[in-house]
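We emphasize that the prediction below concerns an isolated chain of 230 residues; any contacts that depend on oligomerization or on bound cofactors are therefore not represented. The input was used exactly as deposited, without trimming of termini.
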Amino acid sequence: MTTAARAPETDGRRRAAASRRRLREAEIIAATRAEFDREGVGEMRIEDIARAVGINRAIVYRVFTGKEELFALTLVSYLDEMHDALVEAAASTTVPADRLTAIVGAFVDYGVAHPAFVDCAQALMRRRGSDLLEEITESALFRLGRAISSCLAILTTALEDGVASGDFTVTGDPTLLANTLYASGLGALQLARVGITVTESTPGVPVVGSITAAQVREHLVASALALAGR
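Result of the prediction step, given as a token string:
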């Protein structure tokens, strides 16, 4: 009887503790995003994040396994936000080529507006999946995978619908193409930030040129349409 009587109270404390943990996690992620947007991913220190939230750095490590997990879940925050932009772009037209153009354009626009998203995504992509499994929890990795796949699903669906309508002739797996476009898109966004190109006018003589975000956007759209067999 005593054990049964205490069970609801114990469950209540557990739910309250879980709620506090989720709130703390959200506060830390928000502070991390703010730090990323202000100082850049490369300059991020756990001490700065803890100070912004008003907690001891040790508490950050109680909520996250380390910097890699904090990076991963901060990237989830960016991806969830970008997902909404991609959904809106995909819904803007039913014409396959225009739909693909809108989705790729929305991706570029978001990346240009949020350079820390690009840095964070590239930092994690440089890690092998097996390494990430050792450094972040399975739950965090699942949330990251779900956030990425939900964005890629929008692009994959647009490609598949274009194939079904006869507008696209994708060679190979549309899912692989969507993943390739995402990876190459991150690299192109970095190029847009740097703003320079390098070519060779004569053998051994490099020439530095310039490139704008608008040019990168145009290139990525054209590449996506070409790869889709448009």
